[in-house]
Amino acid sequence: MTEYLESPGERPGRTFTITFDLSRLPTAATAAGVALVSAAVVVSAMYTRNTGDLDTSNFVMGALSALGLLGFAVVAHLVVPDAERRAGLVSWPGAAGAAGLGVMLSVLISNDDVSIYAGAGLALVLSVAGYLLTRAAPFVLSSLAALVVLYAKLFDDVIDEGDEGSQFIVIGAAVMIFVMVATAAGWLLPATRELTGIVVGIAGLATMAGVLMSLGTIRAMTVAFSEFRVSGFDDETDFAEMDDLPGGHFFSGVGEDPYQNDVYIVLLFCLALALFWFGCALSTGHVGFRLLVAGSAVLIIPIATIALMANRPTWWEVGACALGGLVLIGAAARARRPETPAEVPVAP
Q: 162 with 149: CB under 8 angstroms?
């Protein structure tokens, strides 16, 4: 279907074209159908154990929905002759079905220590199998989602036994390592190399921003309470020293700030990720990695001023502006240099 409309402001007779290509209808309809069936799986997972016990009707509906997605992918793989159309009809329903079955298995198992590992493990196995059969990007995304869940659960089990005072540093390090390792692993799959790194990068950047925001909030509360004075006591008496009062044992001195170093270390992790994405941008030229670098500065630096409780944010503005200006000047100077063709080695 083609609609011809006269473009305002142009010479009479000139038109621009809006084209609706009905050959793309299966792809668009597949996205809508997968989204609706996946919504049924999510609702089922929400309410299957809403009361603590297994709600059979909700569980059966969610499991059948996930199995239906996988079954549809298998049938489409067998009956659709066109390879391009078949790819979309197999990959998205298959990846969503794999993730859905993992979710429903985790809901079915009542033991929380086992359910997450079992559900994410099943989703990972099905997604990897789907990727090996189709080499399609959606299976990479569902594999990454399963890996994130497994990594987060394993990390949670480990950190419960660790030092609570360094949790933010451990979380930041874990996020940085996962982003770098997952991106490096995705580099082995050229067809989805950029997709893997960018998706993992977006999740990692958002998590780092959340860690810094949490650090800033807890740090501000800690400093405020450590300087709190209880009315009726001497002005030199600190609330933190009143062990017989509720909460008094949590603070040990006036103006105590145990989280300042944590903020600096997490910022170093963010800098390492920004440099890592900068290298990926140089290697691939993909705009997604450049956006991650830009997001690191635009998102992390303002949050850093809050987390560090900057008294003079003007200096942060001056520093960011000066550094950005130098980088732009360097980029312009490099762009003015003529490109020299790569030398081709000549065999002796």
A: no
Burial bucket for residue 43 (CB in 10 Å: 0-12, 13-18, 19+): middle
pLDDT digits (tens, 9 = 90+) for 30-45: 989 999 999 999 999 9
Do the Cβ atoms of 183 and 201 come closer than 8 Å? yes
CB 98 within 8 A of CB 134: no
Token pair of 261 as six digits: 């170093």
pLDDT digits (tens, 9 = 90+) for 53-93: 889 999 999 999 999 999 999 999 899 888 877 888 899 99
What is the rounded distance in angstroms from the CA atom of residue 217 to the CA atom of residue 309?
10
- Paired tokens of 167: 């949790």
- Tokens 């359910």 label which residue? 115
Under DSSP, the state recorded for 48 is: T
Task: Please give the full DSSP string across 103-158, using - where no structure is assigned.
Answer: HHHHHH---HHHHHHHHHHHHHHHHHHHHHHH--HHHHHHHHHHHHHHHHHHHHHH
pTM over 0.85: no
According to DSSP, the residues that pair with 19 across neighbouring strands are 2
- Cα Dmax for the chain: 92
Q: Specify whether the CB–CB gap between 182 and 230 falls below 8 A.
A: no
Helix (H) or strand (E) holding 255: none
Q: What is the rounded distance in angstroms from the CA atom of residue 263 to the CA atom of residue 279?
A: 25
Alpha-carbon gap, residue 51 to 48, rounded angstroms: 8
Pairwise CA distance, residues 307 & 287, whole Å? 29
